[in-house]
Amino acid sequence: MKSPPFHHTTPHAADASSADDAGPSKSQLKREMQALQDLGERLAALPNHRIDLLDVPAALRDALRELTRIHAHEGRRRHAQYIGKLMRKVDPEPLRQALLDATGENREAVARMHLLEDWRTRLLQGDDALTAFMQEHPHADAQALRQLVRATRAEQAAGKPPRQYRALYQTLKTLLEPQDDEPDDL
Angle 130-147-94 (CA atoms, 0-180°, nearest 5)? Predict the structure, then answer.
């Protein structure tokens, strides 16, 4: 006897359309991971003082610094994959912007960054710089800024990691960013 012809039918044809809504394809996920890995490699090419300014976990910061010390092809490839894995846990947009700012692709941002670094250096060198800063920026909290400068000086004298140093930079960045209510030059 002949067996009945086999007809391949999808048991749940309605589920096929919901599978399309399940999320990105495997290829898309691979492209996204490769993009994070490439971003990590470009960030690792920055000087160490720029890497220190990045708002990333310490493990990622250390991995970025380590990539420059690895010269073997396979070792670099595997370490870049590790960086890509760590970067999945952070928001890549601020890092992309930081890379643009650091590489000079955004001249206005570079000028602003130099201004911030200049003010930070001046504030750490002497107390008269704080007076000058407060005259130019009266909206700043003088007491909080003075405490942060002192903490940064103490941190540097003790040879501790630059946590306060970065916090001072971020505070200055917040204080010197253009306010939304200021009119733009047209």
Answer: 85
Spatial CB neighbours of 33, under 8 Å, sequence gap ≥ 6: 84, 88
In three-state secondary structure terms, 47 is: coil
pTM above 0.85, yes or no: no
Name the DSSP letter for residue 73: H
Whether residue 119 is found in the same domain as residue 83: no
* C-beta atoms surrounding 108 within 10 Å: 8
Angle at Cα 103 formed by Cα 136 and Cα 44, nearest 5°?
115
Contacts of 99 (CB under 8 A, 6+ apart): 39, 42, 43, 46
Work out how many domains the chain is built from and give that number.
2
Q: Is residue 21 part of a domain?
A: no
Tens-digit pLDDT profile for residues 60-118:
999 999 998 999 999 999 999 999 899 898 988 888 888 887 776 667 777 888 888 99
- Does residue 164 fall inside a structural domain? yes
Q: State the alpha helices, DSSP H only, in 103-181.
A: 107-125, 128-136, 142-158, 163-176
Q: Does residue 95 fall inside a structural domain?
A: no
Q: 120 is in which domain, residue-wise?
A: 110-176
